[in-house]
Amino acid sequence: MIGSTKSLLHAMGVATDKGLGALRGATTWLNSPPLSADGLRGKVVLVDFCTYTCVNWLRTLPYLRAWDAKYRQHGLVVIGAHTPEFGFEHDLDNVRRAIKAMRVEYPIAVDNDYAIWNGFSNQYWPALYLIDARGAIRFTHFGEGAYDESERMIQKVLGEAGASGLSRELVTVDAPGIEAAADWDNLRSRETYLGSEQGENFVRNAARLRLNEWTVGGDWTLGSKAVVLKQPNGRIAYRFHARDVNLVMGPTGRGASVRYRVRIDGQPAHGGADVDAQGQGAVTEQRTYQLIRQARPIEDRQFEIEFLAAGVEAFCFTFG
Length: 320
Hints:
single chain, Glutaredoxin, six-stranded mixed β-sheet, six-stranded antiparallel β-sheet, disordered N terminus
């Protein structure tokens, strides 16, 4: 979810610590005891701003894991600053579950108050800040891509800090599922929020959707961040052009499970990580679900998901 947001603290003009000093604003730490600017002095640090449903960040994650595995022994400290976008991403249990499922082993600073975000004057998910042993920011990158350039800068700054025995060969990753790089050449649909606060391209009672329009069928309530299904057999349809369709969604009640069916041009869809061979799956937790992965040729197609029970909230479509 490459985009900008302003926190309440920033909007109010509250002073914040800058750079690594902002780490003191973490609400808690996962995978590590609390880290500080003083404790990191002399280390090369890669701060990565993330939020666990962000598909743009998910597609960078294989590289972050690989860099942590390769360069930790040479003095690199990778820190994930988890700054939430949606309300449920403030929930520590959700974050713990997500980073475990995603095999994230490097330290995570939970940034629920946006203190670290503001300390770096950050605007994006994902965002990389490479900080040298003196505490200076030497390299930044916002969004996906630039992996070779980023890694070469990691090698350079580590070398300046005295690291030896570094292999100059760049990492390679073979990312499955939702972590696979987008098919940029065939991507004609963009991130679409469903709540009233940022929603767009919603149409009512459309006989035929045009590209990137969406609609609902059934008894839904429109909230500021999400649409919420009140009765069984509710549907969401979207006319898209992409290899992948992902949907940020979850049950409205903790521990609930709601079955769904996914269709593409009226036929059961399969290939997405969260559907079976019959195009079916279940919403069991609040996260990003990969519902479509199709083979070429990529054309304008109609996506539809039908929920067999009430109690689902859907936040945002993303594509790949």
